[in-house]
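Handout, tutorial session.
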Amino acid sequence: MTDEELEALPSADRDRYIELIDGDKIGGTPLFFQGDEWPDGGPWRLLLQLDPNWVPFHLNLGSSPRVFAFVAEDGAQGRLLVQDS
């Protein structure tokens, strides 16, 4: 779902959708908080979404980062993306 589609939803539906895709996870739909920011060279599938400041270990990636790991559909390449507030 694009940012524009998300903003067009009624607030209760938007909140429910965000709750479903938020948090640390393997696979699924990424929850970008700085706009849709897919890596170049896709199409990509989300491998991992991680908020590394809130787990039992710390990755020094910024003040409040979210890490996205992507893998190409054929599994031959990957990309790591960090969004930070």
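The second record follows below. Compare its token runs with those of the first.
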Amino acid sequence: MNSKNITIELATKDDMPFVLELIQELATFEKEPDAVDITVDDLINDGFGKQPLFTCFVARVNNIIEGMALVYFRYSTWKGKTLHLEDLVVRASKRGTGLGNALFKQVISYAKQEGVGRAEWVVLDWNTNAIKFYERSGATILKDWHLVQMSKEQLNNYTTN
């Protein structure tokens, strides 16, 4: 793939159907094909409203969206403003072409531009290609922390008594 054919840019509302396709492709890759609940309208409302909840970059090859990276800000009581990379997705047919690296470089550049105290993300323990990529980038892979979540149903079932 010729790098001249690759562009990385901020996503627009019109890109959200393709972003949702990539999110669904990621869910399938992560063996959770039925886990995606959001819609294109959710992405538009949440990403382009008065207080956008995320920033999304899209990677185009010959003007076709083939990858995306979705990030948002968090706050660390230790580091201050941080950037969380929620998902970096490249279509299966384009993996290994440098597209993921181009998106990752954009995310790191954005983090530097925003002056964050830390950038962070999670990676599945069986995704060895991604782990090796992140290790080569100089990132630290924390093995002594556990990701903890509560689903909407769990939140609703939680009692404060």
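Points raised in discussion: The chain has a mean pLDDT of 95.
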